Amino acid sequence: xxxxKKFIEDSLEEIKKAxxxxxxxxxxxxxxxxxVATALxxxxxxxxxxxxxxxxxxxxxxxxxxxxxxxxxxxIKTKYIDAKKDFFEVFKGKxxxxxxRKAFRDKFYKTLGKAAKEEKIKFIVxxxxxxxxxxxxxxxxxxxxxxxQIGINPETYGYxxxxxxxxxxxxxxxxxARELCLPKEVSERMPFPGPALSLRVLGEVTxxxxxxxxxxxxxxxxxxxxxxxxxxxAVLHNDKATGIKEGKRVYGNIITVRIVESKDAxxxxxxxxxxxxxMRIAGRITGEIPSVVRCLYDITDKPPSTxxxx
Length: 310
Ligand code: XMP
What we know:
The protein starts with a helix and ends in a 13-residue tail after the last strand. Strand 1 (24-27), helix 2 (32-45) and strand 2 form a beta-alpha-beta unit. It has helices at 4-19, 32-45, 63-73, 84-91, 97-118, 130-137, 170-179, 184-187, 207-224, 275-288, and strands at 24-27, 49-55, 78-82, 123-125, 160-162, 231-245, 248-261, 269-270, 292-297. By secondary structure, it is of the alpha/beta class. The chain folds into 2 domains: 4-187, HUPs (Rossmann fold), CATH 3.40.50.620; 201-297, GMP Synthetase, Chain A, domain 3 (2-Layer Sandwich). It has a 5-stranded parallel β-sheet with strand order 3-2-1-4-5, with helices on both faces. Strands 6, 7, 8 and 9 form a 4-stranded mixed β-sheet that branches. Xanthosine-5'-monophosphate is lined by residues 135, 141, 143-145, 191, 193-195, 231, 265, 302, 306-308.
């Protein structure tokens, strides 16, 4: 049985030993993994830690404000970096899923490396967990936060990496979050991938297309809050379909809704959501987002699907 208290005690020792008198920078997206990693390192080294929130323009509605506020409430020194333009620039013309993931990863590390250099910091903390490592090393996908395990030396980006959670799975990370007394909105937060909405915009990632999926995501989350499922979200397709709006033919966008049950994201089951909920979601998505004419529900488990589409 995993002992969160013991894990925290051991981690604090290890982190202190690794960091010594150096300063540390932490990339915090606000997800449970990166927030727990940040809080843990903060507990170990206090004000030697600076947390950065990189605003890549791919976050959910209200997320940048939520993350910065959460970190400040935890008394962690926090820096907001507006990198929206830079990220959209690297996505230009890219439609292949792996190419997009690698572009995100590269921009992410460069942005972080620059911030670390400006702050004269050698150590980067990140919330990599065991499932991220397994999937990337196994060749399933290039998780944005896995480098060393696939032979990329983080020093090429100019720093050393600290990954205090890399031996844990998600349920254990949540246990650590509760033990650290992090707010419920963090410890029980729905998983959200580092590359964020870029994984849910199939094809080219543009500000306009991200805005569509962001709104659809907000609707799905609002309508499924009571389900207690592992992950609920929307995906924008790269194809279009015919529909009718205000009596006229529209060749518009397609959104797929995905709602899954899972313990650790290694396997997942599509949830048998009551039809009324699905109909309400479809009605709202096609009604509130002008360009969307069709809404689908994904009934595939993992495997053979993955949770995300990309
Ligand atoms: P898949 O799609 O592999 O997702 O079934 C498993 C879990 O991991 C999340 N995920 C990611 N998280 N960086 C992350 O931080 C990534 O690149 C990434 N890709 C997938 C996904 O949302 C699910 O919870």
